[in-house]
Every structure is written in C-alpha cells, then in structure tokens.
Amino acid sequence: MWQAQVFTLYPEFYPGPLSKGLYGKALAKNLWNLKVINIRDAAEDKHKTVDDTPYGGGSGMLIKADVLAKSLDKNKVKGEKIIYLSPKGKKFDQYYARELSKQKSVSLVCGHFEGVDERILSTRNIEEVSIGDYVLSGGETASFVIIDSVLRLLPGVLGNEYSKKEESFENGLLEYPQYTKPQIWEEKAVPEVLLSGDHNKIKHWRLSQSEAITRVRRPDLWQKYKKN
Ligand code: ADE
Fold first, then answer.
1. Which of 7, 51, 92, 152 could make a disulfide contact with 109, Cβ separation 3.0–4.6 Å?
2. pTM over 0.85
C-alpha cells in the first residue's frame, strides 16, 4: 500500500477529489491510504498559534518551526521522504512522480501564509518541491496534483482501458492526437492513415506527430529528446 501523509492547516480540503471514481475505489481496496494531519493540533498555547511574524520585517506570517517540527516528529514514518510544497522548490515532473510511486510513504507539508521558518527544512531533511512557475495560496492544491500523478502509476489503481505507455512524457515526448467516431465530424475527417489498418504506418505517423508537437510546444523537451 502506498501512503500519503499531508500536513495542513486545512484538513477539510481532504480527501476531496481523491475519494471519487477510480481513486476512491482504490482507496476502499487499500491500494493506497491518505492520512491528514492538522498542523494546528501540535500548537501548545491556548490560542493554538501556528504562525508568527518574520525576523527582519516584511509582510505576512510564517509557520513556526517548533510547531511544524512537533507535528512532523509525532507523525512521520521512519525513512519516508518529506516534501514541502513551495514555488521555490525543485520542479515536479513525471520522473519525480515515478520515484514517489516507488516509496511506501510520502509526507507532504502544505505551507500557508508567507511560508515556513527555513530551519525546519534542513533539520528535518525536507525537500522543497514546486509544481510549476506560478504562486498558489497554499500547498493543498499542489498536494492534490502530486498525489493524483502518483496514484495513477500504482499497480491496480487504473483499469486496463488506460494505457500509460503511450501518453505524454513516458517517452520524453508529448502525446500524438487521437480521434474517435464519427469518422467525419463538422466536415473534419479523421487522418486517413488511422483507417488504414497498417499498424507499422500508424506507429510511424504517431511518432512523427508526437515529435512535431513537442518541437513546437516544448523546445525544452525536444532538446532533451534529440540528445538521447
Ligand atoms: N505553494 C504555492 N505555490 C506553489 C507551487 N507553485 N508549487 C508548490 N507549492 C506551492
């Protein structure tokens, strides 16, 4: 069983979309598990304070290292990877998702306010991870992205109708275009080659489409692909 532990100030967000459809069924079958930990439960004063102002001034509040440490130390699974979601982290991608899918348990710390006291990251061996170059109001939505991308890689979670081999990123390219019935729709016909029944020809056509799309839309991926 693969487990995600989320540390959050908004436990009511979970499990949300992750409890629906195939992921919900997989959850019921114990193929994965979600543990939601309210960081505030670790606050010790009567106001349950989790944040404070930054040294050196500046706007906003930071999650306190001592509160977060207490929450993590109480709940973390021995040897597991701990991730702090932040726009200044290492960029998350399909390779990272695959690595996480091989772990038994992963902890995801969702920041809020202006961030966390930096000292928590080094003392608890936490990796800072970003899901993209934009700023979210908190790590919760990013945690959904990460968990979603990992769950679909776990054996038995998706049905056979999903092919993971030929989708975007699995071969370093974006996916080729796909078509279904009707053969002509709003005067647009399905590419002839797909009706030919010639599997070799179809395979070549799909690869050339993948390459063309990747070259135009993602020069970064294209450069990497050409080198390999
Ligand atoms: N929190 C705020 N912005 C984020 C981002 N881009 N990725 C991950 N966590 C975040």
1. 7
2. yes
